Every structure is written in structure tokens, then in C-alpha cells.
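2024-03-11 09:14:02 DEBUG pipeline.ingest accepted 1 chain
2024-03-11 09:14:02 DEBUG pipeline.ingest length=225
2024-03-11 09:14:03 DEBUG pipeline.predict start
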Amino acid sequence: MRIDIISVAPDLLESPFNHSIIKRAKNKGLAEIIIHDLREYGLGNYKQIDDTQFGGGAGMVMMIEPIANCIKKLQVERSYDEIIYMTPDAKTLNQSTANTLSLKENILILTGHYKGIDQRVRDKYITKEISIGDYVLTGGELAAAVLVDAVVRLIPGVIGDEQSALTDSFQDNLLSPPVYTRPAEFEGMKVPEILLSGNFPKIDDWRSEKAFERTEQIRPDLLED
């Protein structure tokens, strides 16, 4: 998979993509992540990328020309399965979306800043808009990092035990059940006996039951879905 990211602040993305699972995916050649500095496409001597909004109002707006020039240059080099805009006023990222995107070959992500981007960019170029929650960040870089992490970890071969990703929370609209490891007892707190029994069919039943109970208590909305 190749992921291109258009950013006003590319340095913000250096650390998230050079550690842990994402680094492993890159080293294995399973994911290629390329960050493009939008200011390289800025206008004039000062590489302008934003301007005041028509109709007045507070906050600057990212201009269409630099973004369009960058996207068109990248589209000459390859076709994109999705061109994604990270924005708080969109549908919230969920596991189903991450699963779907993990099957794509080429993805382009645009990160917003300031008051947002010229609406014409969204109308002409963007194929999917994604939010990571009902709150506003300084820019879309951290949101893009969240999306990339959620997607790349699902690519076969990235995680050593692929079954692990398939049993994460939200994969079947349930939260994960409680998990335990050694020691079997700590300060009087014991691991449930069923997990020590070696009876794997009953362990699976227990996990399913606990997953349902946790979901019902913490995220009943998932059961409605």
C-alpha cells in the first residue's frame, strides 16, 4: 500500500511514522508513506497557501490553487483509490472504515489547517471525508497519523499474529473482553479460573459473554448498530 499525505506541517508526522508497527510495515515493504509539503506549491515569493475568507469572518482558509496543483501532480504519477480529507465535520472513523481502506492500493490524504479548505477542493477532488472525533485540532496531521495507524496495522504481514487484529474491539461491533497475563494471582486478585482451565471452547464462550457485557455497559450504541 502507498499512502501520500499533503501537509502544511510535515515535521509533525516524522515521529509517528518512524516507530513501532508503522516502521515495521515500512521496513517490510508493506506500506510506503510519502509526505508532501504543501508550501512547495504555494503562490508567489512567500509561497502563500491561505487567504481571508469571502464574506468576512475570523480565520484563514487554505486556498484551492496550491492544493489543486499538488493533487494534480500526484495524480499524473498514479491513480488513487481514495482522496481523503481529514476534517472534524465528517463521519467519524470506525473500524469498518479502517478495514475497507486497508484493502486499497493507493490512498491520498489531505490535512486541513486554519479555518479549513476552500469548499471547491472538497467538491472537485475529495472522495471521502473522515473525522477522528467531535473536537477540533490545530491541524489534520495528528488525525492523519491516527488514520494511517488504524489502516496499516490491518495489512497482512504487518502484525506478527494477524488473528490479533481480527479480535480487536469494534471488529464485530463489540468491545474486547478483559485480558490477563502472569501472575495468576496478584495482591489477592485472581485471574478467572476459566482462563486457566485449558478448555478453549468454554474460554471462547466466556470471552464472547464478557465482550457483550462490556459493550452493553460502556457502549450500548454499538449493539444498536
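2024-03-11 09:14:41 DEBUG pipeline.report The mean pLDDT is 94.
2024-03-11 09:14:41 DEBUG pipeline.predict end
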